[in-house]
Amino acid sequence: MAFIPGQPVTAVVQRIEIQKLRQGDNLILGFSIGGGIDQDPGQNPYSEDKTDKGIYVTRITPGGPADAAGLMMGDKIMQVNGWDMTMVTHDQARRTLTKKKEDVVRLLVTRKSLEEAVKQSMSYPRQ
Amino acid sequence: MDTEPTPLATPITPAAREIKPTWDDNWGETTTAVTGTSELSVSQEEVVGLGKEIQDRTQGFRRYLPLAVGLCVGLLVLATPLVFLLLPAVMWPDRLQACGAACEGLFLSISFKLLILLVAVWALFLRPGRASLPRVCVYRAFLTTLTLLLTMSYWLFYGVRILDAQDEDYHGIVQFAVSLVDSQLFVHYLAVVLLELRQLRPCYSVCVIRSTDGETRHYNIGQLSIQRAALSILEYYYRDFPLHNPALLSASKHRAAKHLAGLKVYNVDAPGNTAGAQPGNGNQSRAMVSAAAKRKDSAHNELYYEEADYERRVRKRRARLVVAVEEAFTHVRRMKKEDERASPSDIMDVREAALAIFPSMARALQKYLRTTRRQHCHSMESIQKHLAFCLVNNMSPKAFLEAYLAPGPTLQYGPERWMADQWTLVSEASVTSGIKEGTEFLLRCLDFSLAVTIKGIPYIRLTEEYIDPKSHKFILLLQSETSV
C-alpha cells in the first residue's frame, strides 16, 4: 500500500457501515485509531510500508459496534463518509469519526488480505 | 590472649649486605662517577678501579664522590670571573685605569649573575644522586666537557692577552669577565634543556610485564637513553606494581610438575610393547598410562574446583576478619571532655590503645594472611604500628583493613623487600643509546624480571568541524492512539 507522490492511490477496499452506539452522552464506535500525517509512521505496527502515514485501526473493543460490523485490527481507513483519511492529521481523523450529528459512519477500509483475495479470484479462470 | 603465636614471621633479612635505598626524592642521577652533580667525567675510571670487593664502602663513597667533584668544578666555575677581576688589581694596581659608573654597573651585573648561577648550579647539579646507573650519561659528560673547555679557553685568552700583556684597560677586563659569566649561564641553560626539559614531552608508550605473574602496566615517557628510561620505569615499578609474592606461584609450579610427571609415564611405557615381555609390568604401566590420560583430562577440572574452593575459603576468612576488626574498633574511642573524670588506668595513649585491641583481631588477621599467603609481608610490629596510625587519624575499621586485603606497592613494606640494589639491565642495544620504537630490554631482579617493550605514540591528526549553534533543531515524533 505504498504510495508514489503525485500518482493516484489504488487499493482494494471493503465498505463497512458502523452504527454508532449511544453511551450516556457519547456516541462511540468501539475501536481505536492510530497514525496521521503528524505522527511517527515508523512506530506503526500494522503498516507494511513504514513511511505510510495513514490512519490504522489499532484496537477493537470486542462486542462493540465496529466488531459487529466486521472491522478488523490493522485495517487502514481510506475514507469516512466520503471524507479522505489518507492525508489527515490524527486529530482531524478523530473529529471526522466522532461527529455528533452523524449516527452512522461508512468506512472504506483496506487490508492485505483483500488484495490477495482479489488476486486469487482473478487467477481462477472464469467459466 | 598471651598465648598468641608469634604470627607473622620475622621479616626476611638479606645476607650481610647493607641495604641502601638508592632512590631519593632529589633528582640527580648517578653514573658510576657522574652522580647528580658532576660535570667531570674523569673520575669514573678511578671509581671503577676501586674494585668490587669493597663495594659496601664504595657504595657510600661512590654516591658522594661525584658530589664532591661537582662542588669543586662549581667552585672553579664561580671563582674564575672573580679571579679575573682581582688579579689585575693585585698585580699592577698603579697602572690600572680607573673606570667609573660603567664598571660599577658591570660589577653589579657580575655579582647578580654569579648569584643566579650559584643557585642554578646548586638546584640542578649539587644533589645526592638517586640512582647508580651502569654507564656515564652522555649529556652530562658533554656538558662537563663543554664547561671545562669554555673555562680553559677563557683562561688561555686571559693569560695571553691580559696577564702577559698586563693590559691597563680595566673596563675591558671587567667586560671580559662579564662575558665569561654570560657564557656560563647559557651553558647552564643548555644543561637545563638537555637534562630536564627534553624528556618531559611524552613520545613513547612503554609496556612493562612482570615475568612471574604477568602484572602489566603501561606508561608514557619522553626521549631518554635506555638506562634513564630503565630508571624511570623502576621508579614507576616501586609505585604501581603490587608486591612480588613468590608464595603465590607455587600452585602453578605444582601443576606444571604434575603435568610433566604424567607425561613421563606415558612416554616411558608405550602401550604396545608391554603385552608380551613383562605381563605384570604391562598391566601396571597400562594402568599408569590410563591414569595419566585421565589426569590430563581432569587437570582443568581440578584447577576449577581448587580455585573455587580457595575463593570460598578466602571469603570466609575475610568475613570473619572484617567482623573481628569492626568489633575491636568499637572497644576504643577518642577521649572526650566528659571522660576526663574517668579513672587514669582507662586513659591510654595511642600505642597502648593499639596494643589493647590488637589481640582480639590478631588471630583472624593471621589466619586471613596465611590463607592469602601474605603472612611474611607483615610483622606484628608493623601491624601494631599501622593500627596506632589508624587510631590517631580516626580511621574506620575498613580503612585499617585495606592495607591487608590487597597487596600494595612494594614500598609499602619493609626495606628488606625492596631489593633496590639487585637490579640488572639486560639489553641488546647500548644502554646509553636513546630509546626507539621497538626497543626491548629486560630488568632482572633476583627471582623475577620485568620485560619492557617500547612503542611510539602515534602521530595524531586532529581536524576541526564547526557546528552552528543554531543548527540544533528537533522534531517531536508522536504515536498516539485515540479511541473513537
TrEMBL record, chain A:
What keywords tag this UniProt record? Acetylation, Cell membrane, Cytoplasm, Membrane, Nucleus, Phosphoprotein, Wnt signaling pathway
Lineage, top-rank taxon, reads Eukaryota
Query: Which organism does this sequence originate in?
Result: Lates japonicus (Japanese lates)
What GO cellular component entries does it have? basolateral plasma membrane; cell junction; cytoplasm; nucleus
Give the UniProt record's GO annotations in the biological process aspect.
cell-cell adhesion; establishment or maintenance of epithelial cell apical/basal polarity; receptor clustering; receptor localization to synapse; regulation of signal transduction; Wnt signaling pathway
- Give the PROSITE patterns listed for this entry: PDZ
Q: Where is the signal peptide?
A: none
Subcellular localization is given as: Cell membrane; Cytoplasm; Nucleus
The molecule here is called Tax1-binding protein 3
Chief localisation class: membrane
One MF annotation (Gene Ontology) recorded for this entry: protein kinase binding
**Domain (PDZ) ranges:** 15-112
Q: Which InterPro entries match?
A: PDZ, PDZ_sf, Synaptic_Scaffolding_LAP-MAGUK
Membrane topology summary = Peripheral membrane protein
From TrEMBL, chain B:
Q: Where in the cell is it found?
A: Cell membrane
Q: How does it sit in the membrane?
A: Multi-pass membrane protein
Q: What is the lineage of its organism?
A: Eukaryota, Metazoa, Chordata, Craniata, Vertebrata
Q: Which UniProt keywords apply?
A: Cell membrane, Membrane, Transmembrane, Transmembrane helix
Record-stated family: Belongs to the Vang family.
**Gene Ontology CC terms, in alphabetical order:** plasma membrane
State the InterPro entries in the record.
VANGL
Regions that span the bilayer: 64-86, 106-125, 137-158, 170-195
Task: Quote the protein name from its UniProt record.
Answer: Vang-like protein
